[in-house]
Amino acid sequence: MNRTLLIIAMFCSASTFAQSPVINNAEIDGSGAQYQGNLGVNQAAGDLQQQANARAIAVGHGASATTQIRQRLRTVVDPRIDARSSIQGDSFSHGNGVLGVNQSAGASNQQANAVRISIGTQPQSIDDSVLRQQNVTLIINSDPTDSEPGYRQIATSDQAFTGSRGVIQLNQSAGVGNRTANTLSVRVTD
Fold first, then answer.
1. Which domain holds residue 134?
2. Beta partners for 120?
3. How many CB atoms are closer than 10 A to CB 14?
4. What is the DSSP code (8-state) at residue 19?
5. Which tens digit of pLDDT belongs to each residue from 110-144?
6. What is the CA radius of gyration of the chain?
7. Surface-to-core class of residue 129, CB atoms within 10 Å of its CB (0-12 exposed, 13-18 middle, 19+ buried)
8. Is residue 72 part of a domain?
9. 133 lies in some domain
10. Please, which residues have CB within 8 angstroms of residue 50's CB and are 6 or more apart in sequence?
11. Is residue 83 part of a domain?
12. How many structural domains compose the chain?
């Protein structure tokens, strides 16, 4: 009798040893409406996501605002991941200012938003070093070459972001190994 109970207990607890599946759905619904000023949002679902919102403002004689973002990712990922990213409702509508939104679902995605503003009397050069990213993603798939990648979907409501003013930066991705970036550099001299 005790052996039977032990065997039943083992089968009942087997599910506790199994890893739960990763949920690869990122959703924003009705958030950030009527924002004012500087707002940065990073949302990720899945594994090994890198996201950044960087802002730099400099005022003065030799003003020089700089940003530098370095993201490095070395991973082995199965490309058959199902992933979905969505921004619904009136999210981020009727706002004013600088908005940076990074939303990703899946695995090994990199996203960055960078803004730099300089107000000064000396001219300065603008170069490509505002945003520098490195991405090394290894996708290993031992399945036949005709295997299908996972299901990917991006959705944005037609009411999201409406009526907003200022700088709006949006990176939205679903899947594996995506790399997206927005960069804005403004220089004002007297």
1. 35-189
2. 189
3. 9
4. P
5. 888 888 888 887 665 555 554 444 444 444 444 45
6. 22
7. exposed
8. yes
9. yes
10. 71, 73, 109, 110, 111
11. yes
12. 1
